[in-house]
Design a protein that fits this description.
Rossmann fold, single chain, 244 residues, two-stranded parallel sheet
């Protein structure tokens, strides 16, 4: 079977969007390295894929270990064609809560670790003059929301980082893709009642289509693009009176 991305690496792949993406890419014939903390879930994913998903247990916050793990994965795959950073956390935050421990966790997992892993992949792709660098951000990063200011900030930072990397790497033949999902049914959103919620399978299908179709930015589902256009352009004096 022909695949657009013979060698892929997904960080944050033990459940939800990441696990579903790994299986879908493996189903196209790709060899997929899956990184996450939970070894048991990774092993189950590898078995489900018929061995096309290769499990690598690792904590994205173990910054000292990340470069060696990245190099080992690239060696094991025999190169790299597609990198996806999908790891993310969104602990519950009350509207009147100011919890630095939760804030730091979101900034580190959603942004700082994304930068470290993506920088490693970017350097590899720049040297190869080829590759696709992909980050799973969120529609939450389109404008500051009252419900979780730091989650919003972490995703806004990730979106800006990938835009900057696109400006840096396009000249070297590297495609940089920003994925902006709305609410998706995953363990992270369990129990939440959110608008326009889709399944992880639906999200993964749209992400694979965007990757294979040459996109550099994709709202998932696409209806979020016009919605976010409106949200971004609501005047601040009106926006502060909303419940967004």
């Amino acid at each position: 079977m022909s695949t657009a991305f013979p060698r892929a690496l997904i960080v944050g792949a033990s459940s939800g969007i990441g696990a579903t993406l790994a299986l879908k890419l493996a189903g196209t014939g790709a060899k997929v390295a899956a990184v996450a903390r939970r070894q048991a879930e990774l092993d189950a994913l590898a078995a489900q894929s018929g061995g096309r998903v290769l499990p690598y247990a690792g904590d994205v916050l173990d910054y000292a270990a990340t470069p060696a793990l990245f190099d080992r994965i690239v060696d094991d795959l025999g190169g790299l064609d597609l990198f996806i950073y999908n790891a993310g956390v969104m602990p519950p935050v009350e509207e009147s809560e100011y919890n630095f421990d939760k804030d730091r966790q979101m900034i580190e997992v959603n942004f700082l670790a994304a930068v470290q892993w993506s920088n490693l992949a970017a350097a590899h792709f720049e040297a190869a003059r080829a590759g696709v660098l992909c980050g799973v951000s969120s529609v939450a990063g389109e404008r500051g929301r009252r419900g979780s200011p730091v989650y919003t900030a972490s995703k806004a930072g990730l979106t800006a980082y990938f835009e900057a990397m696109r400006n840096r790497l396009t000249r070297y033949g590297v495609r940089v893709v920003t994925i902006k999902p709305g609410p998706v049914e995953t363990p992270m959103t369990a129990g939440l009642k959110l608008p326009l919620m889709i399944t992880a399978d639906q999200a993964a299908n749209e992400i694979v289509s965007a990757l294979e179709g040459g996109a550099t930015e994709a709202f998932v589902p696409a209806i979020w693009r016009p919605i976010m256009f409106v949200v971004r352009n609501v005047p601040s004096f009106v926006f502060t009176k909303t419940n967004i």
